[in-house]
Amino acid sequence: MVGVVFLFVLFFLINQSIFAAYKKEHAFLDLKKLNLLYLYHTLFFGVYLWYAYNNPSDSHRYYNDLINHEDSWWNLFGTDTTFINFLSYPFFKLGFNYEMLMFTFSWLGYLGFFYAYLFFREKIPVKIKVFRSVDLLTLILFFPNMHFWTASLGKGAPIFLGLMMFTYAIINPKSRIGMLILGSLIIFYIRPHVFMFVAVGAVLGFMSGKEKIAFWKKLLIYISMIGSLVLVQDEILAVIGLQGSENLIEDFQAASETRAEDLSDAGSGVDMSTYPLPLKLFTFWFRPLFIDAPNILGLITSFENLIYLLLFFKILKVDFIKFIKNSPSLVKMSLVIFLMSSFAMTFVMSNLGIIMRQKSMVMYFLFFVIYYYLAQKKYDKIIKLRKLRQQKKKEMEVAV
């Protein structure tokens, strides 16, 4: 554990350098909150490490793969699981043991939260309180389930970092093109199908956003994203074994049924095959909910899911449809990514443990939509009050 302590201090110092660099562009950076977030995330590294020593964990398999690997580093380069081994191998060769590799990936997960913070604060400067006195952004950043699944050696931490880097970079793609490309590559090489959701979401968001974007820019985004999907279609289809399929719809349905059956036998299965679509989505977004919690982790997650559900209720309003229609491209992009990912995963997820882990990738896109909606309502209310005050002031001046 001495190595972990060394890495904790090292990454803390690196964090301060990162904060200093971004402080020049973003004066809103709350260093106290970000450092507290680092300590909080480190706590979940400890929790997950304990969990991994007492329960089956993919992190052991990843580490054993490195021990047994005898070829060159480049032979590990590829998509899905092999890419995690590719990322891990240089640290392993430097002498990192299992705990040190776990902490290194945990730090990558923390950086994901840092870019999520930048994304939310840059686009939504309005502070929102929920449940009377709770700051919404703080609540979102400190959800325990999000930290648990991004604090270990595996896919969760780096893909969360890739997604948040992508969303932050696409706010200003011209000046953040390097980060945009890096984030896209991380997403694609870890989960090619998620890259498809992100690419389609970006295209639809920019095509339908309320901002006035030159046609050639929209066309460039469309060609770039769709072109990327065409080039990597085989890798995306290979995720579910559909490369070379002649009938994608039928083969997808068959593969989904098989995948769901396999997952339902994994220990905490729920038979979603007969569920109507709304119930499938509810299960993916908000379960487990206390009565179907498989273990102590499930009980903690149930409480968090209840908060998700209460936040979701805040957008179940008539004016939300109008808001989405007139919303900026980033809001529409986030909603498309969230819905597309949810629709796809509900057909293959039948295990509550897998659901708890997988949805951590996409829930932040829903949180962004909810946050923006509440901030827009608050902003509109402030503007309305200002106009009323100005009008009242003019009426008083006329009366005098």
General description of the model:
The protein has 400 residues and is mainly alpha-helical. It has a domain at 1-188. The chain has helices spanning 2-23, 31-54, 58-68, 81-93, 98-123, 136-141, 144-148, 156-169, 177-190, 192-208, 215-231, 233-238, 248-264, 277-286, 296-313, 319-325, 329-346, 352-358, 363-399, and strands at 129-130, 134-135. A hairpin with a 3-residue loop joins β1 and β2. α10 (192-208) runs antiparallel to α11 (215-231), α10 runs antiparallel to α17 and α17 (329-346) packs antiparallel against α19. The longest helix has 37 residues, at 363-399. The radius of gyration is 22 Å and the shape is globular.
Keywords:
400 residues; mainly alpha; two-stranded antiparallel sheet; globular
Helix and strand layout, with pairings?
Elements: H1 2-23, H2 31-54, H3 58-68, H4 81-93, H5 98-123, E1 129-130, E2 134-135, H6 136-141, H7 144-148, H8 156-169, H9 177-190, H10 192-208, H11 215-231, H12 233-238, H13 248-264, H14 277-286, H15 296-313, H16 319-325, H17 329-346, H18 352-358, H19 363-399
Structural Rg: 22 Å
Secondary structure category: mainly alpha
The overall pLDDT, averaged over residues, is 83
Helix content: over 70%
As a percent range, the share of strand residues is: under 5%
Contiguous helical run count: 19
